[in-house]
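Posting for a labmate who doesn't have an account.
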Amino acid sequence: MKLLSKRSSRTKLILLIVAILVSIPMIFPLYWIIVNSLKSDAEIFSRVPTFLPSAPAWENYSKQFASPNMISAIRSSFVVSICSMIISLLLSVPAAYGLARFRMKWKKPFIMTFLVTQMLPTSLMLTPLFLIFNKLHLLNNYLSAILSTATISIPFIVLILRPIFASIPRELEEAAAIDGCSGFTAFIRIILPIAKNGTVTSMCFAFVYAWNDLIYSITFNTKDNLRPLTTMVYNFLNLYGTHWNMIMAYGVIMVLPVLIMFIFLQRYIVEGLVAGSVKG
């Protein structure tokens, strides 16, 4: 028993070391952004790079909010991301459940269309979406960015949730029907709570897709007060050079909401990504 416990602890230690070595290249860019956001211009362009700022320049963060469009950009990012997330969930969750539970003709080719839409480049969709939104008078409107980003999230959410719903035993719904529950009530009270991890994972990815959007926002919205945070980075690029410390501080502000969300919801995200993986 002692020999087995020693082998087990040694294996855990090796796995921990490997995990640390693998995570360092992934975490270092984020660390470098944070460090450079606290440096002055002179320290950033010094010949010898420093891994810690000699004198933290906190004014790099305070100057971010001196821009007149900063508050409106934050508001636009949250409005577009939250609304796109809600629309994506409202449409994709029932669609994933229907594809998992009901028999229908041409089911597999229909599911393949979701895979194909994930492979299409975003630039390919710009022209048809622009023409559609122009006919519907949705240009320079939050709805154009919300609906366009939702088109990215919906196929991804359907592909995540369909195997999760398929792995839930049908007997649970049959037992609910015997107790007098309708199909909709059983779906809301039984199926959705069981698929909570997958739903939370889908919610996070839908939010991130909309939060990171740039191309749709600058194409469909020309008004500065409607543009999100991703478009404001150009304010630090001018004829006199690039303010890298300001750009790094801006990047920290942009990534902070997403980082906080993933820190608090990481347990649901990890379980949601592996849920239903044995049944598709």
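Reply:
Got it, the structure tokens are right above this. The two ends are 40 Å apart (CA to CA).
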